[in-house]
Amino acid sequence: RTGYITMDPAYMNTGATVSSVTFLDGEQGILRYRGIPIEQLAEQSSFTETAYLLIYGRLPTRQELVAFRLQVSRHSMIHEGLKELIDRFPPGAHPMAILSSAVCAMSAYYPELAKMDQTPEEVELSIVRLIAKITTIAAYAYKQSIGHPLLYPDNSLGYCANFLRMMFGVPCEPYVVDDDLVKALKVLMILHADHEQNCSTSTVRLVGSSRANLFAAVSAGILALWGPLHGGANQEVLEMLEEIQRDGGDVAKFVLKAKDPKDPFRLMGFGHRVYKNYDPRATIIKRTADTVLTKLGKQDEPLLKIAKELEEAARSDSYFVDRKLYPNVDFYSGIIYHAMGIPTTMFTVMFAIGRLPGWIAQWKEMLEQKAKIGRPRQIYVGPTKTDYVPIEARG
Ligand code: SDX
Questions:
Q1: Residue 134's closest CA among 189, 90, 65, 188?
Q2: What pathway annotation does it carry (predicted)?
């Protein structure tokens, strides 16, 4: 037995993915990475340590963690050509388009890592380079959008602090690391790190199953995550809360709209395909939002107040209760990013940075399982055999 499911052949033949990376129980609201509850990791671990746990299947020794961190920091700079590629995007380009393009372009800058049947050392290098460079690419996509120069990584800083410095630092003055913001970012990154076979992770596994390289598979995963029903929801939530604020804060009106089958509007950040209970990540993020905003002196942030009122209104409404619709990981995360000064267009990029270790772990597991190429089947409901009708006879 592993977890809750007996791995009998019948189950194995359902075509479901067999994985040992993440355990999720949607009814109980349980989420564990390699068996460790996310509550403990969010409290006690670091993002690089959690990334190591997901990718290599166990917590690192102190020496292994030091070596991993050194590896990641050593590869944090990007090729100058990649910098120029990012520069060539038009002003206002969505950073998810830039991120996916730049990650895919890594297969051009490291062709030795783009071939099939890589050596274990080459696989390792792909993994480290991707984790190291995604924050530099992301920060540069933001800097490019505001016309600021790229700040090169500072290898004396930790992963999250380095990212915040590249995002908000400027060449003309020293950047002061805010430990509270670094801690909040670490918690958010850990909580986003994996989530078993969600849309973007399934995309990474499917693309990787054709033995396309890791950069191509993750580039595809980034694009799947961009969708507003998936990772793009965190940006939609903030825009929804701002609309409610502009509309005078009438949350009841928006709950009514979300219930109207004729109205395409949905409460963004609410509901989940698997969780039919409170998303355990949302519980921690909501608590972190209170802590971070208080530390920043923004405890009266109107958007947090609106979010809490919206949650209360929806959760006392039978439409949401009957459908077991609760806040998900995206409902409160944007409020923290907003308080940190991160623009809404970068919210899904933040999700991608957090999710990268999970994508890599699942891709690596798929290779180790020697998985066949993915080939989903269909139920055909189209026309029976029909003869061709020449154009003259078609009227
Ligand atoms: C993520 O899979 C993962 O693990 C994803 C993720 C991860 O970590 O990778 O957890 C990250 O993607 C979180 C979800 C972010 N998306 C949103 O917050 C967008 C808003 N949510 C919905 O679009 C929806 O809840 C989904 C897409 C998340 C889940 O949709 P499902 O499981 O396909 O549910 P459904 O669309 O079949 O809805 C069931 C019913 C429907 O009503 P009826 O047809 O029964 O009358 O619930 C309603 C839906 O209309 N419903 C909502 C709603 N979500 C579902 N109604 C109003 N507001 C909502 N948010």
A1: 189
A2: Carbohydrate metabolism; tricarboxylic acid cycle; isocitrate from oxaloacetate: step 1/2
Return the structure tokens found at 365.
Answer: 């597991």
Q: What is the ipTM of this complex?
A: 0.96
CB of 166 closer than 8 Å to CB of 175: no
Q: How far apart are CA 102 and CA 118, in angstroms?
A: 21
Atom of ligand 1 nearest to the CA of 270: 60
CB atoms within 10 A of CB 114: 19
Is the CB of 271 inside a 6 Å radius of any atom of ligand 1?
yes
Q: Which of 94, 272, 279, 338 is catalytic?
A: 272
Please name which of 202, 201, 200 lies closest in space to residue 223, comparing C-alpha atoms: 200
Mapped onto helix, strand or coil, the DSSP state of residue 270 is strand
> Does residue 324 come out as left (phi exceeding 0), alpha (psi in the -120 to 50 range) or beta?
left
pLDDT of 179-204, one tens digit each? Answer: 999 999 999 999 999 999 999 999 99
**Which two three-digit tokens encode residue 297?**
């002196």
